[in-house]
Amino acid sequence: xxxxxxxxxxxxxxxxxxxxxxxxxxxxxxxxxxxxxxxxxxxxxxxxxxxxxxxx
Length: 56
Fold this sequence. Notes:
Blueprint lengths: L6 H6 L10 H4 L5 E6 L2 E7 L5 E4 L1
């Protein structure tokens, strides 16, 4: 069962101090963003179905 939660609701809940980032902002409205961690480059892709895929 998938639970749909509005992003504004997630951002307004301040129970944890975990950073929350909007995927469309990360991709600047496109479908691909590069993320660097310890000199390794990862690709974050938004699929046509609206799913996220993170690959190295």
